[in-house]
Amino acid sequence: MACHVYNSTYCKVMTIVVCDMQFEETKVQQIMWTKFNEMKQKHDFPKSNFKGFMANNTQANWNAIKIVYGLGDPYVRMIDKEHTCLFHRIQLIDKHTKQLIEPEFQDQRIFLCH
């Protein structure tokens, strides 16, 4: 997992955290974010003012972000701060529409999606 931020001073996206994990679990990601915050505090970095978060639709990602940077409850949305990339959004829509469309119409669904 990696965390990237857009730095307006340098006008580019910069990697600030990299963590290699075997599974995308909420607890592991929560530890990573907590350690990241501790490291920033230890080195006198100013408090982060993230304008939002972009992640794929894996629930563990969002749960950890909501626990550490939200209200502490993974079920409470962070209004106007939760974003997903177009690629993962399309995957999510595809997954759910596939379940709702009869098998004999799947070819038509795929054609329309493309």
For the biggest β-sheet, the strand order reads 1-2
Structural class: alpha+beta
- Compute the number of structural domains: 2
So what's the overall shape? elongated
Please give the count of helices. Answer: 4
- Rg, nearest Å: 18 Å
Percent helix, as a range, is 40-55%
What is the H/E order? EEHEHEHH
Query: Which spans have pLDDT < 50 for at least 5 consecutive residues?
Result: none
**How many beta-strand elements?**
4
Strand content: 5-15%
The main β sheet shows up as: 2 strands, antiparallel
Average pLDDT number: 83
List keywords for this structure.
two-stranded parallel ribbon, 4 strands, alpha+beta, 114 residues
Describe this structure in words.
It is a single chain. The chain has about 110 residues and is of the alpha+beta class. It has 2 domains: about 1-85, no CATH class; about 85-114, no CATH class. About 45% of the residues lie in helices and about 15% in strands. It contains 4 helices and 4 strands. It has helices at about 25-40, 60-70, 85-100, 105-114; strands spanning about 1-5, 10-20, 55, 80-85. The strands form 2 sheets. Strands 1-2 form a two-stranded antiparallel sheet. Helix 1 runs parallel beside helix 2 (about 60-70). It is elongated, with a radius of gyration of 18 Å.
